[in-house]
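To illustrate the input format used throughout this study, we show a single complete record. The first block contains the structure-token representation of the backbone; no residue identities are included at this stage. The design step must infer an amino acid for every position from geometry alone.
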């Protein structure tokens, strides 16, 4: 093995190791649970079943979440790619959803301080989106939190944040692992 091959092998091994990647591996599997949606603070708009598959990709570096849910008689789908950026010491996410995102890809990340403050069963990322107006107004925030209290349960909470910083729960998914 050449020196460059040894370095590439060491980099590959290092990029898929450590507690964050073990945390992602623990989430892998087939899931089903309750999807709840809010458009206004404290006013539940809908409940339905969400089915999701979370699988490790690229040697365990990332977790791909593919899911489906229903609202108002129509089916929707989405996917998110979660990962831990080792060099920056932070969680990152790319998210698309046929209902929530339109034709955009939302990129979200946690700062290093937020990453170190959470227990191993929880992580959070923050992204933003435009208001859809022409000309565009101020961007809105969107925080995604993922908590795994035990091996067979997963809670995903998404919070909408106005440009003025007012927060309101927008989505909550309470998954149970399918056996």
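Output of the design step:
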């Amino acid at each position: 093995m050449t020196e460059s091959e040894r370095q590439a092998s060491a980099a590959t091994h290092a990029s898929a190791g450590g507690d964050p990647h073990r945390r992602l591996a623990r989430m892998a599997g087939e899931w089903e649970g309750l999807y709840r949606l809010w458009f206004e603070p404290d006013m539940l708009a809908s409940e339905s079943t969400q089915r999701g598959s979370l699988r490790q990709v690229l040697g365990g570096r990332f977790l791909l979440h593919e899911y489906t849910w229903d609202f108002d008689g129509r089916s929707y789908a989405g996917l998110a790619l979660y990962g831990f950026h080792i060099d920056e010491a932070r969680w990152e996410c790319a998210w698309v959803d046929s209902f929530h995102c339109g034709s955009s890809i939302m990129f979200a990340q946690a700062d290093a301080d937020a990453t170190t403050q959470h227990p191993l069963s929880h992580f959070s990322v923050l992204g933003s989106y435009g208001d859809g107006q022409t000309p565009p107004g101020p961007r809105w925030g969107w925080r995604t939190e993922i908590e795994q209290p035990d091996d067979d349960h997963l809670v995903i909470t998404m919070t909408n944040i106005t440009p003025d910083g007012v927060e309101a729960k927008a989505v909550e998914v309470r998954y149970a692992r399918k056996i």
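Structural context for interpreting the output: The two ends are 43 Å apart (CA to CA). The beta strands are 29-40, 43-57, 62-71, 74-85, 90-97, 106-109, 122-129, 140-150, 153-161, 167-177.
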